[in-house]
Amino acid sequence: MNLKKIMISTVAVAAVGTVAQSCLALATSSVGIAIIKSVLLGGITKGVGIFKNAESFKQSDLINKAMPSQLRSINSILEKVAPSLVDKQKDYIAQAAGYTVNLAEPILKNAVNSLTAQDVERIAAGGQGTATLILKEKTQQQLVQAIMPKVDQKLNEFGIVAPINNALKGNNLLGSLFGNKNSTDGSALSELASQQIVNGLFNVI
After folding, report:
1. Rounded distance between C-alpha atoms, residue 52 and residue 16, angstroms
2. Is-contact 52 98, C-beta < 8 A?
3. Residue spans of alpha helices (H) in the chain
4. From its phi and psi, is residue 170 left (phi > 0), alpha (psi between -120 and 50) or beta?
5. DSSP state, 172?
6. Do the Cβ atoms of 96 and 193 come closer than 8 Å?
7. How far is CA 143 from CA 54, 55, 67, 71, 109, in A?
């Protein structure tokens, strides 16, 4: 999301003739701050829409890129021994994302509405993605903590953990991924799924 270009073009239309101001001055003006917040809120609305549709969630490259490396490693093995479990796991995580996005939306919107002049100055001075980075700094931990219990509830409801453990039984990878344990438990899988959901949401904003 290139907020700097949007801000400059919008302010130029709204205030033709005031060309002596710098981009930074425009950004930290009340008009510039309002524009930045509006664009970010629009990105959040777009992301929420994707998360509420399980197929859109599964098909999004940006969300797939947000998958934690441990979960990617697990899926790599499952693809060889039980590929149907990978499809089920991805479907269940997509459903959990839709189930929890209503918890994430107000946290993100509150962070946008609470942006300070210093935050906006960083956005104007930074490159593409700076605004999302600031939101991530402000909300990532809170988001994971907020949605993880619901993700855990949903994955337990689906009963995906036991089949994954059975499929990976005896594989040494699990020990390296989960502190020398020979199986993953629901909380570990829920944490990885929650990380993908949160980071995927940042990617699509």
Report:
1. 40
2. yes
3. 3-14, 23-27, 30-51, 54-59, 61-65, 69-81, 83-113, 117-125, 130-158, 161-167, 173-177, 186-204
4. left
5. T
6. yes
7. 20, 22, 16, 19, 12
User: What 3-state DSSP class applies to 151?
Assistant: helix
Contact 1, 132 (CB under 8 A): yes
Per the structure block, which two tokens stand in for 117?
């002049």
- State the DSSP string of 26-80: HHTSHHHHHHHHHHHHHHHHHHHHHHTSHHHHHH-HHHHHTS-HHHHHHHHHHHH
- pLDDT tens digits for 118-172? 898 888 888 788 999 999 999 999 999 999 999 999 988 898 888 887 887 766 6
